[in-house]
Amino acid sequence: MSEDYYQWKRQTIESYEEHAEGLAEKYNRLGARRDDVQRVLSLADGDKPMVVELGCGNGRDAQVFLERTDDYIGVDASENLFELARENTSEGRFVVEDIEEYVFPKRTDCVVAFASLLHLNRAGVHDVLRRASDALGPNGLVYISLKQGDYKRGGDTVVDEYGERTFFYYQPEMILELASGFEPEYLSQQEYNGSDWFTIALRKQ
Question: Is the CB of residue 150 less than 8 Å from the CB of residue 132?
Fold first, then answer.
């Protein structure tokens, strides 16, 4: 990958680190994704599936997952968000790690990425999906939400009260192209805050 990509990614992570408390307040105002969490767990195999959440932030959704399963790992690149997640959710396990470098536990049941893979380019998303597939057990699930739009090689860099962050937008068809070894299980499209989003669940074949 290009040096520019790594520079954008470093800047994005630094922004999450610097503005962790403000972002946590924003996430808390938005509220947990209860409907999505319930859908993930209803699609998963088993009563208490092993869930890995990529980009767990301050742990707002971890608390909802832990109402239904005690086997949860939250991964985030920001150490400050990691500390907030640990303070908010004592029962969960949390890891500070770049999601492009995280090693998934074997026999994971579900990999969840709520609005986190949008900081990765095509190659990064493809690699995460490949490694998730290698670690998932039979019929394992990947559940993703992304902002919908035309993909740009360099992404879109946004500067706001939460710092400078780079985003990559996708279409569902592109995710399906990148997700070799998976079949679509669920797809929905939403309009939120003036932006188009989509949610897709992929079943390992």
Answer: no
